[in-house]
């Protein structure tokens, strides 16, 4: 537990406001930097695909919402045990935490294999279900099938990284996430383009020329390497969670019930949000190839703004999970409001930057002037929603740390399906992609307000 910033909190040591802010900063900074770096590298990733043309970009954009849906389900399945690890570590029951590590890896791997088989089964008809044109369906099918085959690696990435983070180690997952992104770019260069297309200091890089298929393979290979590295650190090098002999234990009904109580609502939330993204894509698809490509690139560009919020949300789950497990109700309340304010402030600043630099952000991703013009417009619409979007992201991380994932799922159900999708379908008919993004911005603001109300109730009740 040497150099563990959360140790004083678990020991019951009183923390001043300055110490609390320092702790939040220590835990948030690695996660924020990792998220920002991964987004910057994803820009380069999207730019590589963009060089293949609008149809290649549209084929990936068509199924991207579905890959997010399945990825969200994988994350939900791993969360049931990562949160339990945080609670056990917060309560200084380290043996129990290590048992949860073993059980969580096994459960997550089994679920990852199930998702892989389901994804492969639907890969062929999926582009047609989403309304994609005949020209982009074969590439979309191949891209989705390759990613589906790598889902067990993706869920191992989630569970290993999540458990390290919930133990208070934010640096190792951050480093491996950054390395994974760099590896993805390197494999993109080798697999997407034909030999000689990309030069490095005059040297022609050999390439397989696989196009969209190469982009998917690069993602799977890099995720596999990242998962292997984080699992190795978790099981052999983590001070609190590394495996010890003689600590085997059978699954218990109580831990499985708690896993279900955390994971099932979060999986439901992933279905709600993921299916809403799929529905949003279906709203955009009839608007044409330019709209599909602009929507996909704009979502990638916007992620530069909200990824810092997710970094703070990751830190929030760790801090709140351990303070909740330690029974520190006072700190749980104080940390909750500090984290929420920080998330709103950071994303407000990022929203200003996105509004100012929207043309340059899109220009990095696509050479098509029509895609650039439309992408710039929708990004500037979205910039106004960023502060309240930050509130919802960080509040969700706080509630997750408390073990309350049901509230998040219900609030997302209300905001996504009552506000975003009906409004997007209505406005897209009149205003095209601009109308769809106006609907998205209005929904994000409403979602932030709903989460604020729920957070106020949670931290003022005995639950906190």
Strand-helix topology:
Blueprint: H1 7-10, H2 17-50, H3 54-90, H4 94-122, H5 126-129, H6 137-149, H7 151-166, H8 171-191, E1 199-200, E2 203-204, H9 212-237, H10 253-284, H11 289-325, H12 329-363, H13 369-382, H14 386-401, H15 406-431, H16 433-460
Antiparallel strand pairs: 1-2
Helix pairs in contact: 2-8, 2-11, 3-4, 3-6, 3-7, 3-10, 3-11, 4-6, 4-7, 6-9, 7-9, 8-9, 10-15, 11-12, 11-13, 11-14, 12-13, 12-14, 13-16, 14-16, 15-16
Overview of the structural elements:
This protein is mostly helical. It has one domain (18-460). The protein has helices at residues 7-10, 17-50, 54-90, 94-122, 126-129, 137-149, 151-166, 171-191, 212-237, 253-284, 289-325, 329-363, 369-382, 386-401, 406-431, 433-460, and strands at residues 199-200, 203-204. It has a two-stranded antiparallel ribbon. α4 (94-122) packs antiparallel against α6 and α6 packs parallel to α9 (212-237). The chain starts with 6 loop residues before the first helix and ends with a helix. The model has no long low-confidence stretch (mean pLDDT 86).
Entry summary:
With 464 residues, this protein is an all-alpha fold.
Q: Could you say which overall geometry the principal axes of the C-alpha atoms support? A: globular
Written as H for each helix and E for each strand, in order along the chain, the element string is HHHHHHHHEEHHHHHHHH
**Uncertain regions spanning at least 5 consecutive residues:** none
The structure class reads mainly alpha
Strand runs, count:
2
Q: How many angstroms does the end-to-end distance come to?
A: 26 Å
């Amino acid at each position: 537990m040497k150099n563990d910033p959360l140790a004083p909190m678990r020991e019951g040591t009183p923390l001043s406001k300055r110490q609390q802010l320092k702790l939040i900063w220590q835990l948030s900074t690695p996660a924020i930097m990792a998220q920002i770096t991964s987004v910057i590298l994803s820009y380069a990733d999207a730019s590589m695909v963009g060089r293949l043309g609008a149809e290649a970009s549209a084929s990936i954009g068509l199924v991207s919402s579905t890959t997010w849906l399945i990825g969200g389900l994988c994350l939900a399945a791993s969360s049931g045990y990562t949160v339990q690890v945080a609670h056990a570590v917060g309560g200084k029951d380290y043996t129990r935490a290590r048992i949860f590590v073993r059980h969580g890896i096994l459960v997550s791997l089994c679920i990852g294999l199930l998702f892989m088989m389901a994804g492969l089964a639907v890969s062929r008809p999926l582009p047609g279900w989403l309304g994609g044109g005949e020209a982009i369906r074969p590439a979309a099918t191949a891209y989705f099938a390759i990613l589906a085959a790598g889902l067990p690696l993706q869920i191992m990435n989630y569970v290993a990284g999540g458990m390290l983070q919930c133990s208070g180690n934010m640096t190792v997952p951050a480093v491996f996430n950054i390395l994974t992104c760099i590896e993805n770019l390197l494999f993109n260069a080798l697999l997407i383009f034909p030999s000689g297309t990309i030069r490095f200091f005059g040297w022609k890089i050999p390439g397989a020329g696989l196009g969209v298929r190469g982009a998917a393979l690069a993602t799977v290979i890099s995720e596999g390497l990242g998962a292997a590295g984080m699992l190795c650190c978790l099981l052999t090098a983590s001070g609190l969670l590394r495996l010890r002999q003689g600590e085997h234990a059978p699954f218990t009904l109580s831990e499985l019930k708690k896993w279900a109580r955390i994971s099932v609502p979060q999986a439901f939330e992933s279905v709600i949000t993921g299916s809403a993204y799929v529905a949003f894509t279906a709203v955009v698809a009839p608007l044409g190839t330019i709209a599909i490509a602009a929507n996909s690139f704009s979502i990638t560009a916007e992620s530069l703004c909200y990824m810092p919020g997710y970094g703070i949300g990751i830190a929030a789950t760790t801090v709140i999970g351990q303070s909740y497990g330690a029974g520190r109700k006072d700190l749980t309340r104080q940390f909750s409001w500090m984290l929420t304010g920080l998330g709103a402030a950071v994303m407000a600043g990022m929203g200003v930057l996105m509004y100012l630099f929207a043309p340059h952000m899109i220009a990095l991703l696509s050479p098509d002037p029509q895609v650039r013009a439309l992408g710039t417009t929708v990004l500037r619409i979205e910039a106004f929603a960023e502060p309240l979007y930050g509130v919802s992201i960080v509040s969700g991380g706080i509630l997750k740390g408390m073990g309350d994932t049901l509230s998040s799922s219900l609030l997302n159900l209300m905001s996504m399906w009552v506000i975003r999708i009906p409004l997007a379908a209505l406005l897209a008919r009149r205003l095209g992609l601009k109308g769809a993004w106006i609907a998205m911005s209005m929904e994000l603001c409403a979602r932030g307000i709903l989460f604020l109300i729920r957070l106020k109730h949670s931290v003022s009740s005995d639950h906190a």
